[in-house]
């Protein structure tokens, strides 16, 4: 299976209408390739005594990577008892990894209910909405609208629903860890000094000189099939831009996780893309430099059918294998939409490159009149409606094109995804 971060690379580095900006981090997706080793996961990084030492990971098995042997879930939870920061990585569209996150939260709550959750998925300016959710003041639909879930994050809420519901049921504080997207964009494009003094209170100073972290991110960057338009003399500058964004995320989230733990006295479970945690060099490193709070990191890796995967024992404290799926649990339909002066309706900003939207026949300039019979005027609402459908279903999208009203059939057929990453 192809590593899916090439598409993410386009999103991060691309400019103009052809690409979506800053949808996540390059290293978030740890798809295994059809081979016994993945260079990204076998780097000589992490604790000195573990460098060059590998462990073979199999699907459905949990390992103490530091000890180099399988362990039960119960043993892992017992060994976490003293940790105040529990970093649990994810591949955002892998439901099995979110199930593991939920199991860990549930088990740690039973061990000690003095627990909180920190989220990459929500930016700090939206903290009041999280507080209202935990307090029970919002139903799910209102929550998704107020937090603008499908604009600020975009991955189907179904991946996270059990976690949010558990937090509200048990009144566990949820902390937004991430920086607003516009600030990350400015750091990426112009550098840290482009931020105002007030904005620098949100994103701390960036340490861009950590050689091991740079090696990790550069390895991921160079492991991908770099699109032709990104090759040549500008490749290094593109990497530096990406690296600034990556470090800005890590510095911000690491600091906010520490602040949450210290301010509340609670253990904090941090949920973020695995690329922010590999080898203890991302947000977990930033947290360790700021505080002596004990911490632990758990990473999941995806494996192709019938395959095992060798990974470095320095990758994380605990590693588990997940069988890779042919397609994600929830359909993801990507349409670049914009607002136009004088028009309430949404307009398709560019012809879709994502297979499902492309097969529906959407074209640049189409005016969206309705989705599933409902008028939509905001991007979040458009995506919320689509998120309510599952594989095998069909969505009617009515558009205005060149003065003619057309009804397009958006078929959520997973076979349309075949070869999309090839």
Notes on the protein architecture:
This protein has 2 domains: 5-323, 3-Layer(aba) Sandwich (Rossmann fold), CATH 3.40.50.11550; 337-417, PDZ domain (Pdz3 Domain, Roll). The protein starts with a helix and ends in an 11-residue tail after the last strand. It is built from 13 helices and 15 strands. The radius of gyration is 21 Å and the shape is globular. The chain has an 8-stranded mixed β-sheet, with helices on both faces. The protein has a 3-stranded antiparallel β-sheet with strand order 13-14-15. A two-stranded antiparallel ribbon has the order 1-9. It has helices at 5-13, 73-79, 95-111, 127-134, 140-146, 149-152, 161-169, 181-190, 211-223, 235-264, 283-290, 355-360, 379-387; strands spanning 54-57, 62-64, 69-70, 85-90, 115-123, 174-178, 267-273, 295-303, 309-312, 318-323, 337-340, 343-348, 367-371, 394-401, 404-411. Mean pLDDT is 89; it is low at 1-35. It is of the alpha/beta class and 422 residues long. A hairpin with a 4-residue loop joins strand 2 (62-64) and strand 3.
- The total count of strands amounts to 15
Quick one: CATH class of the largest domain? Alpha Beta
Major sheet attributes? 8 strands, mixed
The CATH topology of the largest domain, please?
Answer: Rossmann fold
What percentage of the residues does DSSP assign to strands (E)? 15-25%
Radius of gyration: 21 Å
